[in-house]
Every structure is written in structure tokens, then in C-alpha cells.
Specification:
With 89 residues, the chain is mainly α. It contains four helices and no strands. The longest helix has 20 residues. It is extended, with a radius of gyration of 20 Å.
């Protein structure tokens, strides 16, 4: 028996075709509550996949640390860019 078609609103981002992307984005909830809910779901998904496991490793925590390093570099890039061209002599 064939599966019933999935509504565009319930489709995951990776399953959305390029032509459907503007319509899919228009259906998202961009209110503060919707964004907070999406962040919470993402955190819960990450926690249950990498941290809350029986045999944990360094994978989950190292991803958090790598993300912190990348974000802190992006935040300080404008300062680092100006120091790159200075001569110290």
C-alpha cells in the first residue's frame, strides 16, 4: 500500500527540493517561542545522541569545544584582521 503524501510543513530540510524552499521557509515559525522551541529540540537531540549514552566518548564534548573555538575566532576576526598587517620592528 502506498504511503500518504507528507505535507510540506512536516518535511525535513534535507528532503525539501530547491523549488519548494521559499514555501517551506514561509511555513516555519519565526516567533521567539518558535525559535526557542527549535533550539530546545536541537539541544535535546544533540544531548541524547552524543552525551546521554551508555558508552560515551570524547566525540560529543570535542564537537562543543570545536564549535566554541570557531565561534570565538569569528567574533574576534575583525580585531585579528587589523593586527595581521602591522609591522613589529
Amino acid at each position: 500500500m502506498a504511503q500518504p503524501p507528507v505535507l510540506l510543513k512536516d518535511t525535513k530540510l534535507l528532503d525539501v527540493k530547491l523549488g519548494q524552499l521559499p514555501t517551506w521557509l514561509a511555513m516555519r515559525d519565526f516567533t521567539p517561542g518558535g525559535i526557542a522551541g527549535a533550539l530546545r529540540r536541537g539541544y535535546d537531540r544533540y544531548y541524547n545522541k552524543y552525551i546521554n549514552v551508555k558508552k560515551g566518548g570524547l566525540g560529543g564534548i570535542s564537537m562543543v569545544l570545536a564549535g566554541y573555538v570557531v565561534v570565538s575566532y569569528i567574533w574576534s576576526y575583525s580585531h585579528l584582521k587589523h593586527d595581521r598587517h602591522r609591522k613589529y620592528h
